[in-house]
Design brief:
Layout lengths: L1 E5 L10 H9 L5 E7 L5 E2 L2 E6 L4 H19 L3 E4 L2 H14 L2 E6 L6 H5 L5 H20 L3 E4 L2 H8 L5 E3 L21 E7 L3 H16 L5 E7 L5 H13 L6 E3 L5 H9 L3 E3 L4 H4 L8 H7 L3 E5 L3 H10 L2 E4 L4 H12 L2 H17 L3 H14 L1
Helix pairs in contact: 1-15, 2-3, 3-5, 7-13, 11-14
């Protein structure tokens, strides 16, 4: 069997496409080709990378899709997986003409794309764009062979359009599993891993740090990621807030680092913080990859009560806590409560490891995915 991952926008070594799904499929499939825009063409065993030229602007985008179609046709795959609306449209055309099997990998909630991810102003125009995109997606999804999503909320939505829909979350491989040994919990380390959702997320962290400092807590929040690199003024203001108030004991902004360094920081952490932006939760959001990265490194979870998917995992395996109100006071109170109860932290960390061993790993979901593909 030959599988082609047809991408119009994702990078070569995307966190889900390459590091999760392609790596999980590689031992089980004869040949996998990943087609990405403007990359160096290389190969790794039975994994090949093909590039197509993509230019900026609407004309460049359309030319890129034509190039994507041409390479997709040349590959003559048994199964095409497409993760974006653009690539899904190209895959749909390939299916109509060349009878390829097509699967949509929905790991982003595109139905709110133009109000949450790439906002169009005024907001009413963003809502209209979302509405049009939703109609197009529903039309395409109804006429392809299957859908994989990252959480049950999204799967249940798509099952109403295409009953051949399943959940394949962005879990970690068991080879990355930490030993789960408890660290020295005298100074509790809490990591925030990934991009800030919105400005409110930053305000919540600042409020929490102020309270931790005021109450003489030794707990420390580390931000790995946060702002985009082009948001230099925002980064400066946050660091200035920390330094001018002498909050360095309780907060450190590290920013974006390479994967190896990031995972070393995870290894040293006790608790992992999820995003707090419930306006996105209301729109059936994708489940962030970082919850599984936290868990595979034996890190307890701090999540929002409003994120149903995160809450369900925490409740199922008792591997974290949820906060009712998304504000700095409740976050700080929860951190201090755990700081004063190190045995609880050790229990959360151990339960996180158990959850990965029992269910949230590619041994489990890799087999589920390959059975799904072969059954289509």
């Amino acid at each position: 069997m030959k599988i082609v991952y047809l991408t119009s926008n994702h990078p070569k070594y995307d966190g889900r496409i390459y590091h999760k799904i392609i790596k999980a499929l590689a031992p089980r499939i004869n040949q996998i080709t990943s087609i990405n825009p403007n990359i160096e063409e290389t190969s790794e065993g039975n994994i090949s990378f093909k590039s197509f030229n993509k230019e900026k602007g609407l004309i460049g985008r359309l030319k890129g899709l034509i190039n994507l179609y041409r390479i997709g046709k040349e590959e003559n795959a048994d199964v095409i997986i497409a993760p974006e609306p653009d690539s899904l449209f190209v895959a749909f055309i390939l299916r109509k003409i060349h009878k390829n099997t097509v699967i949509f990998d929905s790991h982003e909630w595109y139905h709110v794309h133009y109000t949450h991810v790439t906002p169009i102003k005024p907001k009413i125009m963003g809502n209209i764009a979302n509405f049009i995109l939703s109609i197009i997606l529903k039309y395409l999804i109804k006429r392809i062979d299957g859908v994989i999503t990252v959480n049950d909320s999204m799967t249940n939505y798509y099952k109403k359009i295409n009953r051949n829909s399943i959940t394949i979350p962005s879990v970690m491989d068991l080879s990355t599993l930490n030993t789960g040994e408890s660290s020295n919990l005298t100074n509790l380390n809490i990591i925030y891993f990934g991009q800030f959702g919105n400005s409110r997320q930053v305000e919540i962290l600042k409020e929490a740090v102020e309270i931790l400092n005021e109450r003489k807590s030794n707990a420390k929040i580390f931000v790995v990621g946060g702002y985009n690199n082009n948001q230099s003024e925002d980064i400066y203001k946050l660091k200035e807030f920390i330094n001018s108030n002498d909050y360095n004991t309780n907060f450190e902004y590290i920013g974006w680092v390479n994967r190896k360094t990031a995972f070393e920081l995870l290894r040293k952490s006790d608790l992992g913080m999820m995003r707090f932006d419930s306006d996105v939760y209301a729109g059936l959001p994708p489940l962030p990859n970082k919850i599984f990265e936290y868990m595979s490194y034996g890190i307890g979870i701090i999540g929002s009560e409003h994120n149903v998917e995160v809450k369900n995992i925490i409740n199922e395996f008792k591997c974290g806590i949820t906060i009712n109100s998304e504000d700095g006071l409740h976050l700080a109170n929860s951190i201090i409560e755990l700081e004063n109860n190190p045995h609880k932290v050790i229990e959360l960390k151990a339960n996180a490891i158990a959850a990965v061993k029992d269910k949230y790993n590619w041994g489990f979901y890799g087999e589920k995915l390959i059975k799904f593909i072969k059954a289509i």
